[in-house]
């Protein structure tokens, strides 16, 4: 589409047309080629709102009509790496529930997460249960009354390793958004850790800070 086509169709001045195209481009919905026009960017874009409660991404995607799916693998109880153990203040031999979750939207891989959670010994979800709910914390609340209170996030830009590229269907070295999350249950108790990588061109994470 071109500015001339939009002017003719909507019968408005050039200024709001240009502003609208600029905003669409900045949001990643379209891209512009000099002298040729504006073109839609193919694929799904996910905008994660700042007020989304921890563990509710799958529900948010479903309610947004984006048909999310997740594939959970590698469910096991393990002693986490030292950096995660220190981050969560664990005893030396404390074991956590560990699994990997691959999230897809409209059948396209969006994010891959490596998850460690402190859970009761009796908690042993299947891959199907974790996939259906989209959140281990939802199952914990349902079965044991353990409520996720908040999550602290750190985000940065990185590039796809060979493993991430294979999982997310992209080239090695492609840009990714990495988000490291620490989970807290009621009372501020450290409850878990997640490291997730997201396809940078398909995912936007919105932050709100106090002022």
List the helices and strands and how they pair.
Elements: H1 3-10, H2 14-26, E1 30-33, E2 37-40, E3 46-48, H3 57-63, E4 68-78, H4 82-88, E5 96-105, E6 108-117, H5 127-133, H6 136-144, E7 148-159, H7 162-168, E8 175-185, E9 189-199, E10 203-205
Parallel strand pairs: 3-10
Antiparallel strand pairs: 1-2, 4-5, 5-6, 6-9, 7-8, 8-9
Task: Describe the protein.
The protein is elongated and about 70 Å long. 27% of the residues lie in helices and 37% in strands. The chain is α+β, with helices and mostly antiparallel strands and 211 residues long. The protein folds into two domains: 3-40, Winged helix-like DNA-binding domain superfamily/Winged helix DNA-binding domain (Arc Repressor Mutant, subunit A, Orthogonal Bundle), CATH 1.10.10.10; 46-205, Chorismate lyase. Strands 4-5-6-9-8-7 form a six-stranded antiparallel sheet, sandwiched between helices. Strands 1-2 form a two-stranded antiparallel sheet. The longest helix has 13 residues, at 14-26. It contains seven helices and ten strands. The mean pLDDT is 85. GO terms for molecular function: DNA binding; DNA-binding transcription factor activity.
